[in-house]
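Teaching soon. Got one?

===
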Amino acid sequence: MNGLDLINKANKFISYAGIVIAVIMFSYLLPFTFTEIHGLYSIPSASYLYFPVKMNFTLSYFILALSLVLIILSFLPLMFKNNISEGFDGENNKYYYSFFSIYIAILIFSSMIMELIDPSITVSVVSTYKFGVQNFIYATGSVFQVIILEFMPVTVLTIVYLISTKNLKLSSLLHPYKYVKDVMFVFIIITAAISVFITHFNIYESILLYINTLILSYVYIRFGFLRSINMSFVSSIIELTLVFFSSDILSTVLTLFLFLWAFLGFYTVIIYYSEKSKNVNKTEEKTEEELKEEKNNEILSRIKKTNPDKLWIRSACPNCSNIEFKVNDDYSLQCTRCGELIAKDAYGPYNIAINNNYVYNRNKRA
């Protein structure tokens, strides 16, 4: 087991511990939320729902119910591995927790810097409300931040980009990462700027919101919508837990836990770049013949996974790696998955790989 696999397991363990803490705290305060929900009516909704609306009995319960549904759904990928979306992809489960640790590290580090610059930023008006009301604000605020500040702008940008590249379809919306990864950082920078523009917070809160939006937007694109809600909810409720136990020994224990979590996040970054550097060095050490053989084996492995009846052309789409094509009148190829057009003479590497493998196996048998 290499260093990256080991740190992934450690991140998963500590992330599960953080999730358990958040769920227990939220569940404990939920009965108080129901009895104290009327205290929300005098609080500006724009401060936690990110849009102005007059709160009343019906609306507050609707918002709470919607948030509860999305929060529960955000935990389903922990139990299921069906590839419904990026958030349910089993392979993403492994790396999601490492990024969760990095997220906690960035939040703690940026908050500490802001506290040194302006200590008053740690004093939140929310902390003056009853804990049932605080539970509502932290929980629903974490959900609606993702919906209003991340999901809506990123989705609009993604749809526009997919239309421009002629890749707009349900599968590309459910799995946007591989279609928009080349422009992903442009998307999240624009999204973070929009979040600051529409909230009108002070300079320090705007900086923290900008950083938070950058990360959650990346999580939405890379790991899925439910993952971003899960991360936002858990970090928000842990913040509430610190407030709840502010004068208790448990506050010290929880603080130490968060610093351990943050340390794992920073250590993950170090391990990741260390492993990446090793892989680069290994690649540079390989001969041209070894690299060619690896490429051939990669192509052949994809061919073997494809139904022979569907293997029309021995080629791979440069956009999505699909190997099923429609042959046009001019003998150009059109990918059946993403619509990418390929010139008629562009499938030579596939044929060469197959022929090389055939010759190699024939000589080996001889």
